[in-house]
Amino acid sequence: MWGYFCMLAFLLILLVELVFYVTVAINLENEARGKVEAVCFDMGRLLKFNPVKFEDGLIEARQDGVNVYLIAGDGRVFFPRDYKGTPDVYKEVMNRIGDEKDGYSLTYRTGNKVSCALKVDDGLQPFYILAKYSVTIVTRTVGTLQLYLLIIGVSIFLLAFLISYIFSKNITEGVQTLSDTAVKFANGSYDVEFVNVDYKELAALSDTLNYVRDEVKKSEDFQREILANVTHDLKTPLTMIKAYASMIKEISGDDRDKREKHLQVIIDEADRLTGLVNDVLSVSKLQANIAEFNLKVFNLTELVYGIVNKFGYLQESQGYNFMIDIDPDLYTRADEEKINQVLYNLLGNAANYTGADKTVYISLKSSMDGKRVKFSVRDTGKGIEKDKIAEIWNRYYRVKENHNRPVKGTGLGLSIVKAILENHNFDFGVESEVGKGSTFWVDFPLVPSEI
Ligand code: ADP
């Protein structure tokens, strides 16, 4: 990590230096070109319109570091007067602009000199003005700048090196601590604490990990509870079955009435066991997402009537009232068998938890816009406390009390309901008021019948 930081710092500094160097070098050269061109054109103008001032201009230009030459077409060098060189400048201008027309100019660089040549031709004989400026000073400035930049660059790099070392050390140490704690956690110590406050991101990660730890802890507790619940629920019917079987063997074997009664207990308890095993299987399959869903259009009204009829025995033998308000022939598209399981669970719960009047209200109504069907089942029981509402949908959740239920439950009913409805993407929920009762509802899509 530290290595990457340093590499990044190095590349950035290199880039900045390169950009700086290139821009400065280009700027300085452009300035030199501008300078020689300005002098060259000024001298050209003087030669044409004010030749007596030509020499003054020449001196002025020289003070500015620019050397100016006035060369005649025949090779004589008029200015500077003290020009003693070989006819180099004449050759130079002839090569560059000798054949060009009056007023033609050319700026070029040779070695460390920038020159501008201009042709002035009044028809009698051509003249050439050559202005030369040495860029040695420019190159030297660029060199100095380069050195400064190098010093600054190296200092910044050393600083970046140091800072990134401190940063990366802190981050790596933080991550290492978190990772060590995670290993401890994975090995089963659920009381570990993920701590990190140095960096916001790592602190957020610690919070998330602490949250995960809490959830895993909760789930562990749930697992333990279900094991206790299921073992208890398995034990009771098994004890009963064994006890009644022994009774038949030893006592009631010959008494037909008693035997029948005892056999019925065995059958009921065996049914209860089957129900429990089926529920556990359903939950496991739904939660593992391996349950298959067979979607088709079916008559929801008929399904609801069918389920209510199944509870008819409670009406006849125990004085329950099922008040129904059901619209005829409402169709929906879903897995009929699984929806049957959902509605059966909700109705069973309502019968289990309703109040002393033993009344359950069932309604199935289409919405105003004709797009949805709302199923709801209301009881008059003691309701569910607000802080418990979220929990009742959890696996194995059961309010701890000995409730006298007419319909046997396993504590898995609502988690099965939730898993099935979530799989269908149907809205569902519960409204409950303590002391008044609860209403569980499901929103189905309303579809035309397929005939
Ligand atoms: P079970 O009814 O077998 O315990 P469920 O998953 O069906 O399991 O329900 C979980 C818990 O939700 C119940 O133990 C009960 O405390 C609460 N509950 C469910 N339905 C109702 C209801 N209609 N009124 C009050 N409490 C309810």
Give the percentage of residues in beta strands.
15-25%
Largest sheet features: 5 strands, antiparallel
Q: Round the mean pLDDT to the nearest integer and report it.
A: 85
Helix tally equals 11
Q: Using only CA atoms, what is the Rg?
A: 49 Å
Cα shape: elongated
Elements, N to C (H/E): HHEEHEEEHHHEHHEEHEEHHEE
Small molecules in complex: adenosine-5'-diphosphate
* End-to-end distance: 67 Å
Give the total of beta strands.
12
Give, in spatial order, the strands making up the sheet with the most strands: 2-1-5-4-3
**Segments where pLDDT lies below 50 for 5+ residues?**
none
Helix content: 55-70%
Structural class: alpha+beta
Q: Mind explaining what this structure looks like?
A:
By secondary structure, this protein is an alpha+beta fold. 57% of the residues lie in helices and 18% in strands. The protein is built from eleven helices and twelve strands. It has helices at residues 2-49, 54-63, 88-97, 136-186, 200-252, 256-287, 300-310, 312-318, 336-353, 386-389, 413-424, and strands at residues 66-72, 77-79, 105-110, 113-121, 126-134, 295-299, 321-326, 331-335, 359-366, 372-379, 427-433, 437-445. It has a five-stranded antiparallel sheet with strand order 2-1-5-4-3, sandwiched between helices. A five-stranded mixed sheet has the order 7-9-10-12-11, with helices on one face. A two-stranded antiparallel ribbon has the order 6-8. A hairpin with a 3-residue loop joins β11 (427-433) and β12. The radius of gyration is 49 Å and the shape is elongated. The model has no long low-confidence stretch (mean pLDDT 85). It binds adenosine-5'-diphosphate (ADP).
